[in-house]
Amino acid sequence: RAKADGRGTYRFFETGMDARAQARRLLEMDLRAALGRNEFEVHYQPIRDVASDRVVAFEALSRWNHPQRGLISPVAFIPLAEETGLIVQLGEQVLRNACADAATWPEEIGVAVNLSPVQFKNPNLVASVTEALAASGLAAERLELEITESVLLQNSEATLAILHELRAQGVRISLDDFGTGYSSLSYLRSFPFDKIKIDRSFVSELSTREDSMAIVRAVTGLGRSLGIATTAEGVENDAQLELLRREGCTQAQGYLFSAPRPASEVVMMLAKPRLRASA
Ligand code: C2E
Ligand code: MG
Ligand code: MG
Ligand code: MG
């Protein structure tokens, strides 16, 4: 409970708290209703193989298509969905939709779905992945699940058991936002990840900061030594792509190629050749 210097300050503070708590309650109610009304859409961002310049997969990214407020970013609703546990239902929807969409794409194109640490506390996680694959007919090998280091931070033995079960089905597991968490290197020993995604914060400063360059070089080298693919997130310009290519980074994803777009635009994103100034 906050202490007040004077009556006015106290009242002001309390009112502020009330307003925030109320806004949060409203958003939570809204979120719950939105799940029932199917207001969530999945957008897709292409992931390209650096060497061949071909699209190899799309990352599924949630968008809340709010009737009054328009498209809402996941940054605004995922944390609340996690706090309220609604992420379990939302995550299952994303998984089902992403698998169903991907099943209509060419066979060589995969789909990557983000999993929240909260979903790992749900005993039905593995079953919901199995069901999404079965319902869509998508081959398990075409599904990548992205987790962050924070997933391994919580109850790591149970988490590792789930990851191994998923892997046993043929699903691939990527370590997302690499470099922004805690003890990254030991995580690489605790589970044989299929892919490391180098966080955007390092990629965006690639050409301007020596230390970012050094970190990207170290991570791509690490991936090579461990036999793990590396994907650079947030590639926005040709200079960054060129540096990544030189370092042997396997895949690239970012606005340079495309922002995340609705499922209806996937075919177009696959067809569009990327025009590059320098080959
Ligand atoms: P993430 O998984 O690391 O996804 C990459 C984010 O970077 C996406 O933001 C994408 O739009 C953005 N991005 C891609 N290329 C560029 C670029 O060149 N420049 C810049 N500035 N940004 C780029 P988005 O869609 O806002 O998603 C943010 C985060 O929300 C995701 O980060 C992920 O952690 C989470 N998220 C999104 N959808 C889901 C979901 O369905 N489930 C869960 N659990 N988390 C999700
Ligand atoms: Mg991701
Ligand atoms: Mg990421
Ligand atoms: Mg990220």
From TrEMBL:
Signal peptide: none annotated. Residues 24-274 form the EAL domain. This is Bifunctional diguanylate cyclase/phosphodiesterase. It comes from Bradyrhizobium iriomotense. The lineage of its organism: Bacteria, Pseudomonadati, Pseudomonadota, Alphaproteobacteria, Hyphomicrobiales.
